[in-house]
Specification:
Strand 4 (about 45-55), helix 2 (about 60-70) and strand 5 (about 75-80) form a beta-alpha-beta unit. The chain is globular and about 50 Å long. With about 260 residues, the chain is α/β, with parallel strands linked by helices. The chain has helices at about 30-40, 60-70, 85-95, 115-125, 200-210, 220-225, 245-255; strands spanning about 5-10, 25, 30, 45-55, 75-80, 105, 135-140, 145-150, 155, 175, 180-185, 190-200, 230-235. It has seven helices and 13 strands. The longest helix is centred in the last third of the chain and has 13 residues, at about 200-210. A seven-stranded mixed β-sheet has the order 5-4-1-6-12-7-13, sandwiched between helices. Strands 2-3 form a two-stranded antiparallel ribbon. The chain has a two-stranded antiparallel ribbon with strand order 8-11. Helix 3 crosses helix 5 (about 200-210) and helix 5 (about 200-210) crosses helix 6 (about 220-225).
Amino acid sequence: MAIHAIVPAAGVGSRMQAAVPKQYLQIQGESILSLSIRRLSQLPGLQSVTVALAPGDQIGLQIVHQLSATIATELHVAEGGAERWQSVINALQLLAQRAAPADWVLVHDAVRPCVRVQDLQNLVQLAEHPDSVGGLLAIPVADTLKRAAPTDRIAVSRTGAATGGDTAVDINAVNVQTVASTIDRQNVWAACTPQMFRLDQLLDALQRCMAGSVIPTDESSAMEYCGYQPRLIVCHKDNIKITYPEDLYLAELILTSQVPA
């Protein structure tokens, strides 16, 4: 059975506070999206990558076009949706036109350019067992977890002055909440990507979520909703998701330090 990849890249990345979607910001002269696709393409045996782009996204189209001339992996473009899961459904439906129902699909965040090829190989090896429905890269939580009290946030400026609730204007303010409880971190994992499942089962799970008005936060949660138990496969902590401005600097350090595959 073949292995394919899907990269949902239709988001705007509002938390990055950048002029362009975060997947188009550059590290070492190359867009984050391009770096993520290149890293996926280093997985031996990967047949294709389908990138889900927002309608009319010329930047994304140009990146995919340029990449198609420099990497051996087949690249395709699907129309992205308003939400990540909608982009994945669209990409799966497009992929189903040229792939077998039981083929494996890796769904990877567009802004995780640091995932190690060895972790990709471990995921494929451990998730495609005949008795497995698939799995995801993840990291056991090491930090103590706190649940915040369900109260309005108080934005405190860096000078120490309170500026009000959620509508605080000071962009340099830090949101402060109070602790409601401490969460037991035993058996708690932080989900990463890629997440790997069979094409037909993942598409069915996402469509069942849609029919039940359930919003899946990732592919694994859709499979869990349908009663499946995906495998958790540990990956390195440097498989970070670029979300905030400071993550760009961290990702550049990681990419510089990683040994080329």
